[in-house]
UniProtKB/TrEMBL annotation, chain A:
Pfam families: BPD_transp_1, BPD_transp_1_N. The lineage of its organism: Bacteria, Pseudomonadati, Pseudomonadota, Alphaproteobacteria, Hyphomicrobiales. Belongs to the binding-protein-dependent transport system permease family. Residues 95-304 form the ABC transmembrane type-1 domain. It is found in: Cell membrane. This is ABC transporter permease. The chain crosses the membrane at residues 9-30, 99-122, 134-157, 177-197, 235-261, 281-307. It comes from Bradyrhizobium diversitatis. It comes from the Bacteria.
Automatic annotation (TrEMBL), chain B:
This is ABC transporter substrate-binding protein. Residues 77-428 form the Solute-binding protein family domain. Pfam families: SBP_bac_5. PROSITE patterns: TAT (PS51318). Belongs to the bacterial solute-binding protein 5 family. Residues 1-28 form the signal peptide. Keywords: Signal. It comes from Bradyrhizobium diversitatis.
Length: 313, 534
C-alpha cells in the first residue's frame, strides 16, 4: 500500500507540471494588465508602462516562465504583484477559513445525505422516498447564493440566531468558529447533500436486492443492522467516489459562498486575484487546487481499500 | 496502513490547519466598544499611496500618513504638518517650517530630510508634482525642521498641490521608505498620521486594521476634510472587505459593522427603513459619468461625429440607468466641472441642454462621412456604473444609425485594451465608459481626463489646442476671478472639441449605525471626529 501511495505521489509530478504550463500560458495570453489596475484610473500610459517594466511583465514568455518554474522548484510561489506579500503567506492566511468551510460542509453532507439516501432506498417508491428525492431535486436546483441569502435573511436578520458574515478561527473557541460556518455550510452543502443522497439511494437499491441481504433478513437481523452495517458498507464505493468528486464541487461553490458570507477564504482570494490579474497568486492557487484534487483522488483510492477488502493495489 | 492510521492522519492534518498551524483572521469577533468597523468601497489590495493610486488606497493612507497642507471643505489649502511658510516676492523660493513634535509611528521625529525624500517620490508620479518638478531648481533640507523649494518660475498652485486630496497625495514618509523607486512598492507602512497601520493583521481582500497613534499631536483648529485637528475618537478602525453589497447591508442591519461607505442605490430603501441606521449623501462632490471617444480613428477622429453623439445623448437616460428613480442622486451636467464647487460653469454647454435632436445629430453624423463601419464600444460588465452606461450608449448609437460592436468584458480587460493605440479592428477601440470622482474635477490640476494634449493625454488621446491653452491659463491665474474666467473658456473649448462625453453628475449614499456619530461629508471617508457609543 505504502509503495502504491508513493508511486501515485510521484505520478502527480508530471500532472502538476502540465497544469503549471497550462495555467501560465493561459494567463500569459489572457487579456488584462495588472499594471493598469495598480496605476489607477488617472494614470498616464507612461506610468503604466513604467510599472509594467518594474514588475517584469515586459519580459518574453519563456524568460517569465523559466523564472517562475525555477522559483517553484525552490518552493517559492512568488510574491503578489499587488500586496507585495509572499503568495504562500496569502494562501496560508486563507487556507483555514476555506478548510473549515469544506470540513463542516463535508461532515454535514455525510451526516444528512447518507442516512437520507439509505432511508429513501429502504422506503423506495413510498411517500418518504418521494419527499426525500423531491428535496434532493430542489437542493440540486437552487443556486448557492440564493440559498445563502435566504438563510442569512431568516436566521441572521429575522431570528438573529447567527451572524450574517465573517469567520472566527477555531483557536478562538469552538462555538464562535462554528456559528460563522453553519449558514455557509448549509448553503454550500445543499447541492452536495442532494447529489450524495441520490447516489446513496441508487447504490443502496442495488445492494438491497442482493442475496446476502435476503439472508440477513432471514437470519432475523434488525433493519438498522441490515441497512447501515451490511448494505451500506457494500454500497460505499460509489458513495465514497461521489463524495470525493464532490470536493471539486465544494471548491467551486466555496468561491460563491465565501463572497456571500464574507468569509476570507481561498475562493475570494481567487476571484480577487483574477479580477486584478495578480498572476503569481492565480498561479499559486490553481497549483494548490490541482494538488488538492490529485490528493483527494489518491485518498479515495485508499479509502476503497478500507471499505472493500477485495480491493488491493 | 490501516483504517485507524488514515483517520488519525486526516484528523491531525485538519486540526493543524484549523488551530495552530495556520494564522487565520478574526473577522467576526465581537467588536470592542472602541472599535469602528467600516466597509470600504473596495479591497485594500496594496498600501503604497504613491505606487498605487486607487481611491481606496488614498482613503486608507490618509489615516496613516499626514500631509504638509490639507484641503478643507472650501477647497483651500490649510497648514497641516507645516507651521509656517515664506515665499519670496518673485514667487520662486518657498521656505517651509515644520510643526514641532511631529513623530512617525516608529517613534522617530519627522525631519526635513523625510519631507524632501517624500516630495521627491511624490513629484515623480503626481501630475501636479511633475509640473513642479519641471520648474524645480532645488528642493533641500535647511535644518531639521526647515526645508526650501526653489523654482525657476512661480507656481501659484504650490500649496494646493501639497494639500490636495486627489491621488496621489503628498504624503510624508520616513526618508528610508520614501527613497523607494516611485514605480516600485514600499514594504513598510510607517507614517505620522493619526492612526497606525497594523500590518500583522492585514489580510488583503478581507481585513485591514488601523490603531490610534498615541503620540499624534493634532492641530488645534476644527477639522475640515484633510485640514484641521484630526482627533481620533476610537482606539481601532477595522476595515472589513465585503464584495457582496447584500451581505454588507445585512451586516449593517445586524450590527456586525458600523459604517458602510457606499451602499448601492437598490439597497438604500431597506437601510432607510431601519431605525438604527442613518443614511445620507457621503461625498457631495459625487461623480461624473463619462465615455471617451478615440480621436485617432474614424468615425470619432472627426469632431462632427463626436458632436453628433453629444447632441443626441440624454443625460437623464444615463443617470436613471445608474441611480434609478431617486432624483436626489443626480443632476444634468452641461459641462465638465463638479457642480456646487467654486469653478463650476455651464459656459459652452448648450449642446447638452434641452430636447435631444436625433435628426440633427444624424445629419451631422452623415456630414462627418460615417459610412457604417463598426464602432467598437468597450463595456466592463463587472462595474455596475460602466455596464449601465454601456447599455444606454449602445442604444443611442443604434438610434443614430451606427453599427455597434459591443464588447462586453471585465474592467481589467477594458483597462488594458483602452491603452492600445492600434486600429479598432486590430485590438484597439472606438469608445469606452468610465466615471470620474467629482473631487478630481473641481479644477484642472488633478483632472487628467480633461487634458487634450494628444499623445500625452488620457486614453482616447484628444487633441484640442484651445483646451490646453485654457488649462495653462488656469494654472497661471492669480485670483478666483481669473480662475473662473479661464475655466469658462476651458469648458467651452472642451465641449466644442468633445474631449469626452459627460453623461451626468451623480451622487451616492453612505450609511452608518446610529450609535456612530461625527460622520462627515467629503470626498473620502474621514475617521477623525467619528465616535461610537456602546
Amino acid at each position: 500500500m505504502l509503495s502504491y501511495i508513493l508511486r501515485r505521489i510521484v505520478a502527480t509530478l508530471p500532472v502538476m507540471a502540465i497544469v503549471a504550463l497550462f495555467v501560465f500560458s493561459l494567463l500569459y495570453i489572457a487579456p488584462g494588465d495588472p499594471a493598469v489596475v495598480i496605476a489607477g484610473d488617472q494614470a498616464s500610459p507612461e506610468d503604466v508602462e513604467r510599472i509594467r517594466q518594474s514588475l517584469g511583465l515586459n519580459r518574453p514568455f519563456l524568460v517569465q516562465f523559466g523564472s517562475w518554474v525555477w522559483r517553484i522548484l525552490h518552493g517559492d510561489l512568488g510574491t503578489s504583484i499587488f500586496t507585495n506579500l509572499p503568495v504562500s503567506a496569502m494562501i496560508g492566511q486563507r487556507l483555514g477559513p476555506t478548510l473549515s468551510l469544506m470540513i463542516v460542509t463535508l461532515l454535514l453532507t455525510i451526516v444528512v445525505a447518507v442516512p437520507l439516501g439509505v432511508v429513501a432506498a429502504w422506503k423506495a417508491g413510498s411517500l418518504i422516498d418521494r419527499v426525500i428525492m423531491g428535496f434532493a431535486v430542489f437542493g440540486f436546483s437552487l443556486p448557492v447564493f440564493v440559498v445563502g441569502y435566504m438563510l442569512a435573511y431568516v436566521f441572521a436578520l429575522e431570528l438573529e440566531w447567527l451572524p450574517v458574515q465573517g469567520y472566527t478561527p477555531l483557536a478562538q473557541g469552538f462555538w464562535p468558529w462554528l456559528e460563522n460556518l453553519i449558514l455557509p455550510a448549509i448553503a454550500l452543502g445543499c447541492v452536495y447533500i442532494a447529489l450524495v443522497a441520490r447516489i446513496t439511494r441508487a447504490a443502496m437499491l442495488e445492494v438491497l436486492q442482493q442475496d446476502y441481504v435476503r439472508t440477513a433478513k432471514a437470519k432475523g437481523l434488525g433493519q438498522g443492522g441490515i441497512l447501515f452495517i451490511h448494505a451500506l458498507k457494500n454500497a460505499a464505493v460509489p458513495i465514497v467516489t461521489v463524495i470525493g468528486i464532490g470536493i471539486a464541487l465544494l471548491i467551486g461553490g466555496a468561491v460563491v459562498t465565501e463572497s456571500v458570507f464574507a468569509i476570507p477564504g481561498l475562493g475570494r482570494l481567487t476571484i480577487d486575484a483574477i479580477l486584478r490579474r495578480d498572476y503569481p497568486v492565480i498561479q499559486g492557487i490553481v497549483l494548490l487546487f490541482s494538488f488538492v484534487y490529485v490528493l483527494v483522488n489518491l485518498m479515495i483510492d485508499v479509502v476503497y481499500t478500507l471499505v472493500d477488502p477485495r480491493i488491493r493495489y | 496502513m490501516d483504517r485507524r492510521t488514515v483517520l488519525k492522519g486526516l484528523a491531525g492534518a485538519g486540526g493543524l490547519a484549523l488551530t495552530g498551524g495556520l494564522s487565520a483572521p478574526a473577522i467576526a469577533q465581537g467588536a470592542a466598544a472602541r472599535t469602528l468597523r467600516f466597509v470600504p468601497q473596495a479591497n485594500l489590495a496594496n498600501f503604497d499611496p504613491i505606487w498605487g493610486t486607487q481611491y481606496v488606497v488614498r482613503n486608507a493612507a490618509a489615516m496613516v500618513w499626514d500631509t504638509l497642507y490639507g484641503i478643507d471643505s472650501s477647497f483651500q489649502p490649510q497648514r497641516q504638518m507645516v507651521e509656517s511658510e515664506e515665499v519670496t516676492d518673485d514667487g520662486t523660493t518657498w521656505t517651509f517650517k515644520l510643526r514641532p513634535g511631529l513623530k512617525f509611528h516608529d517613534g522617530e521625529p519627522v525631519l526635513s530630510k523625510d519631507v524632501v525624500a517624500s516630495l521627491t517620490r511624490w513629484s515623480a508620479r503626481d501630475p501636479m508634482g511633475l509640473m513642479i518638478k519641471a520648474l524645480q531648481q532645488e528642493l533641500t533640507a535647511v535644518d531639521d525642521r526647515t526645508f526650501k523649494w526653489v523654482l525657476k518660475q512661480p507656481f501659484p498652485k504650490l500649496l494646493y498641490a501639497l494639500g490636495k486630496n486627489n491621488s496621489p497625495c503628498g504624503f510624508i514618509m520616513p526618508e528610508r521608505i520614501a527613497q523607494t523607486d516611485p514605480f516600485k512598492q514600499i514594504s513598510e507602512y510607517i507614517g505620522s498620521g493619526p492612526l497606525k497601520f497594523a500590518k500583522s493583521e492585514w489580510v488583503p481582500g478581507a481585513k485591514a486594521v488601523f490603531e490610534k497613534f498615541a503620540d499624534y499631536s493634532p492641530r488645534q483648529e476644527k477639522s475640515s476634510w484633510l485640514a484641521g485637528g484630526k482627533q481620533v475618537m476610537v482606539d481601532r478602525v477595522e476595515w472589513v472587505i465585503m464584495p457582496d453589497p447584500a451581505t454588507a447591508a445585512a451586516a449593517l442591519q445586524n450590527g456586525e459593522i458600523d459604517w458602510w461607505e457606499n451602499p448601492i442605490a437598490d439597497l438604500v430603501p431597506v437601510l432607510k427603513k431601519n431605525k438604527n441606521i442613518s443614511v445620507d449623501i457621503g461625498d457631495p462632490l459625487g461623480n461624473i459619468g463619462s465615455f471617451r471617444m478615440n480621436f485617432l480613428y474614424p468615425p470619432f477622429n472627426d469632431v462632427k461625429a463626436r458632436r453628433a453623439v453629444l447632441m443626441a445623448l440624454s443625460q437623464e437616460d444615463y443617470m436613471r440607468a445608474i441611480v434609478g428613480d431617486d432624483n436626489s442622486l443626480w443632476k444634468p451636467l452641461p459641462g465638465y466641472f463638479t457642480p456646487d464647487t467654486p469653478l463650476y460653469t455651464e459656459v459652452g454647454g448648450d449642446i447638452l441642454k434641452g430636447k435631444r435632436d436625433l435628426d440633427a445629430a444624424k445629419k451631422l453624423l452623415a456630414e462627418s462621412g460615417y459610412s457604417g463601419q463598426p464602432v467598437t464600444c468597450l463595456v466592463a460588465q463587472d462595474q455596475p456604473i460602466t455596464k449601465a452606461q454601456g447599455d444606454v450608449t449602445a442604444d443611442l448609437l443604434k438610434k443614430l444609425g451606427m453599427n455597434v460592436d459591443f464588447v462586453a468584458t471585465d474592467w481589467g480587460t477594458v483597462g488594458s485594451r483602452r491603452a492600445q493605440k492600434t486600429p479598432p479592428g486590430q485590438g484597439g477601440w472606438n469608445m469606452f465608459h468610465t466615471w470620474h470622482a467629482g473631487a478630481d474635477c473641481v479644477n484642472p490640476a488633478p483632472y487628467t481626463a480633461i487634458r487634450a494634449n494628444g499623445d500625452k493625454a488620457w486614453f482616447g488621446w484628444p487633441t484640442s489646442a484651445a483646451t490646453e491653452k485654457e488649462v495653462a491659463s488656469w494654472f497661471e491665474a492669480k485670483n478666483l476671478d481669473e480662475e473662473k474666467a479661464a475655466i469658462g473658456r476651458l469648458n467651452k473649448a472642451a465641449i466644442d472639441d468633445v474631449v469626452y462625453a459627460p453623461t451626468g453628475f451623480f451622487l451616492s449614499y453612505t450609511a452608518w449605525r446610529k450609535n456612530v456619530s461625527g460622520v462627515a461629508k467629503g470626498p473620502l471617508p474621514f475617521f477623525w471626529g467619528v465616535s461610537k457609543s456602546a
